[in-house]
Amino acid sequence: MTYRPNILVVCGRNKRRSRTAEYIFKNDNRFNIRSVGLSPKSERQIRENDIDWSDFIFVMEDQQGVRISRTYRHLKLPPLHVLHIEDEYEYLDNELIEMLTDQINWTLKIECKIE
């Protein structure tokens, strides 16, 4: 059986960016994907078990990575990658889909060694 790493995608409220990433990659056989938000108002808020589950974490903005690192400093954090995608897109926006697809695929191939 082929190893399928667990990818956690995080944004502010898990409404647009991270949910779009989960949607477009949900049937990708290279990895498992889950999306969460940092805000208490998130549809699915990040928890310790999400961190423990993940092999790689993708955040949309630098500050989200800093917040995760500070909040969960007591845990052994997996590699964290910042995608630099601002919160200006709607759920399933075509430009957002293109950016997420390009950046996540590139990062998985180059930095995570996942083809």
Automatic annotation (TrEMBL):
<dbReference type="InterPro" id="IPR016919">
    <property type="entry name" value="UCP029416_PTP"/>
</dbReference>
<protein>
    <submittedName>
        <fullName>Protein tyrosine phosphatase</fullName>
    </submittedName>
</protein>
<dbReference type="InterPro" id="IPR036196">
    <property type="entry name" value="Ptyr_pPase_sf"/>
</dbReference>
